[in-house]
Design a protein that fits this description.
0% of the residues lie in helices and 49% in strands. The protein is mainly beta. Strands 4-3-2-1-5-9-8-7-6-10 form a ten-stranded antiparallel beta sheet, with no helix packed on it. A hairpin with a 4-residue loop joins strand 1 (3-9) and strand 2.
């Protein structure tokens, strides 16, 4: 299954493309870029996050709701990234011993279906 993703590196670079071999337990995955159709091998530890998106364009005028409740998506979590970004979502599988974890956005209408957050790119992770 091909997943439409937007990859953000720890240096702030954004790469859009598709992957069919991403796994939270693997150190690498392959990304076929939209720009050149080149296939890149991506090292998870070089990333801030992998956004599994509904569309590449999204809606730039839409503001995600930070206070919505979503039943069945796990525990509500607050993530503070090293670059200063704060993110709220829900997780079912956070473990400090893993390289990363999936988070579902608080807002069901968000352009993100789910986000894989790389633990080494975070400063604080709190359950709220």
């Amino acid at each position: 299954m091909q997943n439409r993703v937007v990859v953000q590196t720890i240096n702030g670079e954004i790469i859009k493309g598709v992957t069919n071999d991403f796994s939270a337990g693997k150190e690498f995955f392959h990304l076929k870029t939209n720009d050149s159709e080149e296939i890149l091998e991506i090292d998870i530890l070089d990333l801030k996050a992998v956004y599994f998106v509904k569309s590449y364009e999204g809606n730039p005028d839409y503001d995600d709701k930070a206070e919505s409740e979503r039943a069945g998506f796990g525990k509500k979590i607050r993530v503070m990234f090293k670059d200063g970004e704060e993110f709220f979502g829900y997780t079912q599988g956070f473990s400090p011993n893993r390289p990363g974890f999936f988070v579902f956005p608080v807002d069901a209408d968000s352009n993100n279906d789910r986000i894989f957050i790389v633990s080494s790119a975070t400063d604080e992770i709190d359950f709220v």
